[in-house]
């Protein structure tokens, strides 16, 4: 497929609730020929799928700060009930981040369960991080499936505390502006250490959470001179110490300003330092009042050094510096910078290199660059002072157009049969990328995914609603194939708001489709039903038969997901006929494939095999790789249900070959579970167990809790086939719990039946019978043939 409280007897116990499947298949079970049996190695591992190690690298030129490091070390001696929180405060550019990271790196071994880092951008002029987004990223980095991450801030914060409970983890929250930005991001475990940097005192954390505060002062004169010499020593070696002291004083002994000034001096080795100092003094009369509200001497010194370095740039680099302040995301590459500035990539690279050389921007990764938040603020200020509003507006239009049209090229390479047809031409001066291969397009998307969401948000905030809703339409095909749930829902909602404000029904339909599909894939079925029903009505009002058929298919998928199989079959048949009448051969085949799956689930695999074969022929003719893969999956499922196991295994093996070639984990995870089911039916339970485990691991990473639970339930069935009923029961209990949380009554009944069978085989007859009664109470609402057969089988087991 694509696109009443039960008794306590079904509740998993605490130990089983913590069952982990995050390792490789080899960690899960090792099958050996030991007198015809299997030797088990079940390893209980940490709940982290990944141990995050996110601390950025250390800056060169770190000098002294031994007194502050000693003061920080003393804070570790304090015993608290909650997490240890240390706030490093100080003026802008004083080196808070450098000190925090230096200390954090020294503590990595003491926090083996992970080190999390986030720049909260609290003083960024346009991009402060919001706690909901930070928690979403932290939870994903800690191995929580995206589909299991709640939407509400309080729920995310509670889950974050639960995940880190009892773990020794380190959290660095850099550049925080307010207590409100930090408080939701605090773990609850006393084993955790939280390091916060801020220009503010964050007194609320000290008073309420008992945080320790370490104030970072300016560098001493000797340390400031040492930093200057560390940067310049390879370029100039005869500078007078008195001149060095004067230069350090003009930089207010602030590390950020000192590094910029030193880089300027290093770039002019034949110029006397006294001449450079005279230039710097000349800049001290320039104003930049937007940096800080109080205009203190330290801020004046930073502004002066920025201006000194900025005014030394050649004109094109200076203009690029100003315009880069408008970039919608946190980091950027050369092509996006070229679009902002309206330059060729070659000229943009020259400008970027000049800015890196002047220490006005910094490398953040291969081919990627970012601002210090002070320098971004300075760039925006210079833009507002020196550029007409029309120039700034045109730059934003170019970079948004570049992101939109490059995303369009990416969707056509990644999902050519599902892509939205973007008719608009790029804005003049924006030259979007093109992609020669699927891999190139996917790499670009993964690099730019956060910037794409930021671009959609920027378009909406600036009233460019026509671009905002198109982001939702263009990115939909990529999201469908990558299951990027958070971004998908966010961009869908942005697009829908933009379309409604435009009062554009066609745009509203496109954005609704994106949001409804996201909610469906994230298993938020009630919300998905509301949006798909609204979308169907809108498309009928527009007279859009093509869109109407798509909506009918979507409602069929919702019915299939809820096991309303008769309704699903009606929708798929009607939609397939509509597409056929419109000449849409591929989509008609797609709905016939969905119909085949519904028939298989209903226990009538015979006609399903024929439908699936016909659909597969169409997909092969069209070269639709996803259609081929999913058609092979549907065919394999129907063949397995019909008892034709050899043919089924051949079909699913071909499907998995497509998933491997396209390196698509969404396909691979789903189709692996079918392979495992076939292997189990064939009588190869050890192989099935390994395949089920690999599918569960992938589904957890993808965030599909429902399919993960189905794979766990399948693992339990494999353990049963291997005679290990105690282990099987653990997996079945976990599956029951997840299906209960998701409200999936059919899958819950299925898992309960499997759990009861395992317990019955293990001699727990009374508990097994209670669980079978629970399953029967759930099965009452299902009237298809497969449900009827299950009820009869359970009743026979209970009476036997």
Tell me which CATH architecture of one domain applies here: Alpha Horseshoe
The CATH topology label of one domain is Serine Threonine Protein Phosphatase 5, Tetratricopeptide repeat
Estimated share of beta-strand residues: 5-15%
What is the overall number of helices?
36
Helix proportion of residues, in percent? 55-70%
For the record, give the distance between the C-alpha atoms at the N and C termini, rounded to a whole number: 36 Å
CATH class of one domain: Mainly Alpha
Rg (CA only) = 30 Å
**Structural class by helix and strand composition:** mainly alpha
Dominant shape = globular
The averaged pLDDT comes out at 86
| Major sheet description | 5 strands, parallel
Give the number of DSSP strands: 9
pLDDT below 50 for ≥5 consecutive residues: which ranges?
1-49, 284-296
Biggest sheet strand order reads: 4-5-6-3-7
- The named CATH superfamily of one domain: Tetratricopeptide repeat domain
């Amino acid at each position: 497929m694509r696109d009443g409280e039960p008794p306590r007897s079904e509740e998993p116990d605490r130990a089983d609730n913590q069952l982990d499947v995050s390792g490789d298949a080899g960690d899960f079970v090792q099958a050996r020929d030991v007198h015809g049996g299997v030797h088990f190695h079940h390893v209980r591992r940490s709940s982290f799928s990944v141990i995050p190690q996110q601390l950025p690298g250390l800056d060169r030129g770190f000098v002294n700060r031994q007194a502050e490091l000693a003061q920080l070390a003393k804070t570790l001696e304090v015993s608290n009930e909650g997490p240890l929180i240390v706030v490093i405060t100080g003026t802008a550019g004083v080196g808070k981040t450098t000190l925090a990271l230096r200390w954090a790196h020294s503590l990595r071994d003491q926090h083996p369960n992970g080190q999390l880092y986030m720049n909260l951008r609290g003083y960024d002029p346009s991009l402060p991080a919001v706690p909901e987004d930070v928690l979403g990223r932290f939870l994903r980095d800690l191995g929580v499936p995206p589909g299991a991450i709640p939407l509400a801030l309080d729920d995310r914060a509670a889950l974050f505390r639960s995940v880190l409970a009892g773990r020794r983890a380190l959290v660095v929250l850099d550049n925080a502006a307010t207590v409100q930005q930090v408080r939701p991001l605090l773990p609850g475990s006393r084993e955790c250490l939280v390091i916060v940097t801020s220009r503010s005192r964050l007194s609320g954390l000290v008073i309420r959470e008992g945080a320790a505060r370490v104030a970072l002062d300016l560098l001493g004169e000797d340390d400031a001179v040492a930093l200057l010499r560390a940067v310049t020593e390879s370029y100039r070696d005869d500078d007078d110490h008195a001149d060095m002291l004067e230069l350090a004083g003009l930089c207010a002994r602030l590390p950020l300003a000192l590094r910029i000034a030193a880089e300027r001096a290093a770039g002019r080795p034949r110029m006397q330092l006294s001449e450079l100092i005279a230039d710097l003094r000349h800049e001290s009369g320039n104003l930049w009042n937007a940096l800080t509200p109080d205009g203190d001497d330290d801020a004046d010194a930073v502004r002066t050094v920025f201006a000194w370095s900025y005014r030394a740039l050649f004109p094109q680099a200076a203009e690029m510096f100003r315009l880069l302040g408008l970039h919608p995301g946190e980091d950027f590459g050369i092509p996006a910078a070229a679009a902002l500035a309206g330059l060729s990539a070659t000229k943009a690279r020259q400008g970027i290199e000049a800015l890196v050389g002047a220490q006005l921007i910094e490398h953040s990764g291969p081919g990627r660059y970012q601002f210090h938040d002070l320098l971004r603020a300075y760039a925006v200020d210079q833009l507002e002072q020196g550029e007409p509003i029309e120039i700034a507006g045109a730059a934003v239009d170019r970079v948004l157009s570049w992101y939109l049209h490059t995303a369009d090229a990416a969707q056509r390479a990644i999902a050519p049969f599902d892509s939205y047809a973007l008719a608009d031409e790029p804005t003049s001066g924006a030259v979007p990328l093109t992609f020669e291969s699927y891999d190139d397009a996917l790499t670009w998307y993964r690099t730019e995914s956060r910037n794409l969401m930021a671009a959609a948000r920027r378009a909406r905030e600036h009233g460019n609603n026509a671009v905002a809703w198109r982001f939702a339409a263009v990115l939909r095909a990529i999201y469908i194939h990558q299951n990027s749930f958070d971004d998908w829902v966010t961009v869908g909602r942005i697009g829908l708001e933009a379309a409604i404000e435009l009062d554009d029904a066609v745009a509203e339909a496109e954005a609704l489709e994106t949001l409804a599909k996201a909610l469906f894939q994230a298993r938020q079925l009630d919300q998905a039903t509301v949006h798909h029903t609204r979308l169907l009505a809108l498309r009928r009002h527009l007279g859009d038969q093509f869109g109407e058929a798509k909506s009918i298919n979507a409602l069929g998928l919702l019915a299939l997901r809820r096991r309303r199989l008769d309704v699903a079959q009606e929708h798929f048949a009607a939609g397939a006929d509509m597409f056929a009448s419109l000449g849409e051969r591929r989509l008609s085949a797609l709905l016939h494939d969905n119909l085949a799956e519904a028939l298989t689930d209903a226990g009538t695999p015979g006609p399903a095999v024929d439908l699936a074969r016909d659909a597969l022929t169409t997909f092969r003719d069209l070269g639709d790789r996803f259609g081929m893969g999913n058609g092979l999956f549907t065919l394999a499922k129907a063949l397995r249900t019909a008892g034709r196991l050899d043919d089924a295994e051949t079909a699913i093996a071909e499907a998995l070959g497509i998933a491997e070639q396209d390196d698509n984990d969404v396909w691979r995870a789903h189709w692996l579970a079918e392979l495992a089911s076939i292997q189990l039916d064939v009588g190869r339970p050890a192989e099935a167990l390994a395949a089920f485990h690999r599918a569960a691991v992938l589904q957890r990473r993808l965030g599909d809790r429902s399919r993960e639970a189905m794979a766990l339930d399948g693992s339990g069935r494999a353990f049963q086939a291997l005679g290990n009923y105690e282990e099987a029961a653990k997996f079945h209990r976990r599956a029951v719990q997840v299906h209960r949380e998701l409200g999936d009554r059919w899958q819950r009944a299925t898992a309960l039946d499997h759990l009861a069978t395992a317990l019955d085989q293990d001699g727990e007859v009374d508990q097994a019978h209670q669980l079978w009664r629970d399953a029967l109470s759930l099965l009452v609402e299902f009237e298809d043939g497969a449900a009827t057969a299950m009820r009869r089988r359970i009743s026979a087991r209970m009476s036997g």
